Amino acid sequence: MLFWILTSGLALAVAGLIGLSLIRARSGQEPPAAYDLRVYRDQLKEVARDTARGVLSEEDAERITSEISRRILAADAQLQIETADGKSTGPGTLLAGIVAGVVMIVGSLTLYSEIGAPGYGDLALADRMAMAEEARLTRPSQEDAEASLPPQLQSPNLSPDFVSLMEQLRATVANRPDDLQGHRLLARNEAAIGNFTPAYQAQMRVIELMGPDVDATAWTDYADMLILAAGGYVSPRAEDALSRALQIDPQNGAARYYIGLMLSQIGRPDQAFAMWQQLMQEGPSDAPWMEPIRVQIEEMAFRAGFNNFVMPDPDAVFGPSREQIEAAQDMTAEERMQMIEGMVSGLAERLASEGGPPEEWARLIGALGVLGREQDAISVYNNALVSFADDPAAIEVIRSGARQAGLIP
Question: Contact at 8 Å (CB) between 314 and 297?
Answer without folding.
Answer: no
